[in-house]
């Protein structure tokens, strides 16, 4: 027997068609959002890739990994069958050390003004500046962990987590660490930082300190002022004028 659908069933079917159309539209939008038609897979690291940076001319990129290495890749020498790094560097290796320690790489970044320099943040208290071929130009000093006042230390006293280049001065970079500080360095001087910004955490039970998880240095070219921004594990977000002074935050 033929049974005609009631109004309620017709209404439900119409809604179903509408939902299907919306679902298709969403899928189309998702497909358009990412360049998924072509890809190159670089199998140069043995563990998860944690950071990546492309130089300003777009001729070279470096990648850092939890396998404790930095890989250098040159686009000009690549073919689909030779997607290899031309050099591998362990940034935490020490010269003339009897026993070598290896550490994950948190962050790498080409200098946006002078692409011959690369800021490297291994999971140690000592950031480094490398050249384009992986040679160490500067290693920043480790501070005295027994000093209570961070302003009296010459460098980070514990693991560094993040870094950023100055958008206006190619000689300056900033680093952030688990010692609750942001430090500004002259890349030509490794024995002492230029500025120490000690963040005082207001979180209960923190003893006034927190892990600084990220730092960024915004450029006026991005449409705003020159500003230095840091975030903490305690949920804080702190801003300073990029040109200083750094004694008090501009916003928090």
Task: Lay out the secondary structure.
Elements (H helix, E strand, L loop, with lengths): L6 H27 L15 E6 L5 E6 L4 E5 L12 E3 L15 E6 L6 E6 L5 E4 L4 E4 L20 E6 L6 E6 L3 E6 L8 E4 L13 E7 L8 E6 L4 E5 L11
Antiparallel strand pairs: 1-2, 2-3, 3-4, 5-6, 6-7, 7-8, 9-10, 10-11, 11-12, 13-14, 14-15
Structure characteristics:
single chain, 252 residues, mainly beta, Methylamine Dehydrogenase, Chain H, four-stranded antiparallel β-sheet, globular
Verbal overview:
With 252 residues, the protein is mainly beta. It has a single domain (47-241), classed as Methylamine Dehydrogenase, Chain H (7 Propeller), CATH 2.130.10. The protein contains 1 helix and 15 strands. A 4-stranded antiparallel beta sheet has the order 1-2-3-4, with no helix packed on it. A hairpin with a 4-residue loop joins strand 14 and strand 15 (237-241). The mean pLDDT is 86.
């Amino acid at each position: 027997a033929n049974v005609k659908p009631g109004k309620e069933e017709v209404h439900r079917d119409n809604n179903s068609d509408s939902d299907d159309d919306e679902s298709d539209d969403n899928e189309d939008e998702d497909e358009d959002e990412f360049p998924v038609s072509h890809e190159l897979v670089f199998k140069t690291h043995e563990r998860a890739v944690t950071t990546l940076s492309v130089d300003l001319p777009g001729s070279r990129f470096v990648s850092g990994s939890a396998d404790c290495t930095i890989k250098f890749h040159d686009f000009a020498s690549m073919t689909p069958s030779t997607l290899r790094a031309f050099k591998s560097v362990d940034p935490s290796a020490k010269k003339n050390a009897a026993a070598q320690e290896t550490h994950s790489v948190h962050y790498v970044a080409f200098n946006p003004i002078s692409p011959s320099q690369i800021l490297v943040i291994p999971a140690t208290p000592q950031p480094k500046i490398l050249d384009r071929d992986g040679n160490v130009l500067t290693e920043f000093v480790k501070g005295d962990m027994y000093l209570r006042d961070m302003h009296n230390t010459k460098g980070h006293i514990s693991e560094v987590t993040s870094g950023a280049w100055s958008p206006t001065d190619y000689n300056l970079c900033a680093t952030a660490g688990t010692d609750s500080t942001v430090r500004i360095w002259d890349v030509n001087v490794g024995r002492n930082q230029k500025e120490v910004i000690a963040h005082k955490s207001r979180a209960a039970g923190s003893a006034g300190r927190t892990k600084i998880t990220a730092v960024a240095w915004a450029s006026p070219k991005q449409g705003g002022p020159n500003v230095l921004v840091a975030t903490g594990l305690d949920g804080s977000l702190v801003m300073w004028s990029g040109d200083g002074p750094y004694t008090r935050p501009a916003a928090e």
